[in-house]
Write a structure and sequence with these properties.
- This protein is an alpha+beta fold.
- It folds into 2 domains: 188 residues, 2-Layer Sandwich (Ribosomal Protein S5, domain 2), CATH 3.30.230; 174 residues, Alpha-Beta Plaits.
- It contains 11 helices and 12 strands.
- Strands 1, 2, 3, 4, 5, 6, 7 and 12 form an 8-stranded mixed beta sheet that branches. A 4-stranded antiparallel beta sheet has the order 9-10-8-11.
- β3 and β4 form a beta hairpin.
- α2 packs across α4, α3 packs across α4 and α4 packs antiparallel against α5.
- The longest helix has 25 residues.
- Bound molecules: adenosine-5'-diphosphate and magnesium ion.
- Adenosine-5'-diphosphate binds next to β5 and α3.
Length: 378
């Protein structure tokens, strides 16, 4: 019996009917463009969140997390609606609400994705619950539908205006590949991302600088993009070329122009990254990753001193490319490095952080992994 099984039985008095798992993610390239209908190229990490669920014969919903001391939060199903006060449990409750559950359940969460590190523990949580419920109640939702529903849970129930990328990759990723996701229609293509056989590794650096996407910075960036879209009379920034943007410069404020320039150039970099990955040209991939960071730092203005230090120290230590990932204002950076240099790179980043008196960073490496799956049926 797994420890989640045991904890579930101990907490709720009977074993679970089902356990599902869903991974966190890292975005190789294509940052802050999911909400502009762009292409993104994330992959699922090996760390995942597990959701164990049991059907009840009443309309009570009880939720606990092993990362929240197994404390039970209880609600009546009919009370679960946006506006209901709560803490972490709003992620699973929002998922229940979005999927339209009609029966009571007990849920126990065991999350192994670092929380708040920009690796999307929130999507891993929502998608593990959604996958378990979809199977347990035979809802028959497709992966695209589950991605939209879990995004809705985070947007409308939790109140975080995230795009569609995190949930999509957590649900749809394949081991050994990055997922080229068209955020306009959620169509996908698996792009082989075999760093290991080229002697490379992807180092994830959690700066431990704290960001919260509810703090307004992310919402302001989205609002800038929406303002450009409405001023230029287009549907989304996806429709805009760099030439058209430059020709429209006078219609936009300076900050709107540079925000849109990030989106337009980043969309191009994603397509270029696919081309160089298909040619296994990792040096060229490194250059694109560096350009992405510069654009996020200078045009989109979502980096921070800790992220810049992580990136600069990685490059100085010989990384092929490095950039901030996720929403920004803290969280994680990635560095594409020679696997043989992992320890030196880590030491160099630690030294650079100590010199700036930043909190010590945490390090992870991960190969591209499988998306959400059912791992046990009782
Ligand atoms: P990220 O998605 O980058 O990790 P977020 O701030 O979007 O950061 O989501 C983190 C939040 O998700 C946590 O603060 C917590 O509320 C919730 N969460 C994620 N995983 C768990 C878990 N295993 N147990 C309880 N809450 C969790
Ligand atoms: Mg999140």
């Amino acid at each position: 019996m797994s420890s989640l099984d045991k904890q579930f039985a101990q907490t709720f008095g009977a074993p679970p009917d089902i356990i599902a798992a869903a991974p966190g993610r890292v975005n190789l390239i294509g940052e802050h463009i999911d909400y502009s209908d762009g292409f993104v190229l994330p992959f699922a990490i090996s760390d995942r969140t597990y959701a164990a669920v049991r059907v009840r014969d009443d309309r009570k919903v009880r939720i606990a997390s092993m990362q929240r001391r197994n404390k039970i939060v209880e609600h009546h199903l009919d009370a679960i609606a946006p506006g209901l006060q709560g803490e972490w449990e709003r992620y699973p409750l929002g998922t229940i609400w979005a999927l339209g559950l009609t029966s009571g359940i007990d849920i126990m969460i065991d999350g192994h994705v670092p929380l708040g590190a920009g690796l999307s523990s929130s999507a891993a949580l929502e998608c593990s619950v959604a996958t378990a419920l979809n199977h347990l109640f035979s809802f028959g939702y497709s992966l695209e539908e589950l991605a939209r529903l879990t995004q809705r849970a985070e947007n409308e129930y939790v109140g975080v205006p995230c795009g569609i990328m995190d949930q999509s990759v957590s649900l749809m990723a394949h081991a050994g590949s990055a997922l080229l996701l068209d955020c306009r229609d959620l169509s996908t293509r698996n792009i082989a991302f075999d760093v290991a056989s080229s002697g490379l590794e992807l180092l994830i650096i959690d700066t431990q600088a704290h960001h919260s996407l509810t703090d307004g910075g992310y919402g302001q960036r989205r609002a800038s993009c929406e303002s450009v879209v409405s001023k230029l009379g287009i549907k989304s920034l996806r429709e805009l070329t760099l030439l058209q943007l430059e020709a429209s410069r006078d219609l936009l404020s300076k900050s709107e122009f540079i925000r849109a320039r990030h989106a337009v150039t980043e969309m191009k970099r994603v397509m270029d990254a696919v081309t160089v990955l298909e040619a296994k040209d990792f040096l060229a991939l490194g250059v694109l990753i560096n350009q992405s960071h510069a654009s996020l730092r200078d045009d989109y203005n979502v980096s921070c001193p800790e992220l810049n230090t992580a990136v600069d120290a990685s490059i100085a230590a010989g990384a092929l490319g490095a950039r901030m990932v996720g929403g920004g204002f803290g969280g994680s950076a990635i560095a594409l490095i020679h696997a043989a240099h992992t320890q030196e790179t880590i030491a160099a980043i630690e030294k650079a952080f100590a010199a700036e008196s930043f909190k010590a960073p945490r390090f992870f490496t991960s190969l591209p992994s499988q998306g959400a799956e059912i791992i046990q049926r009782g």
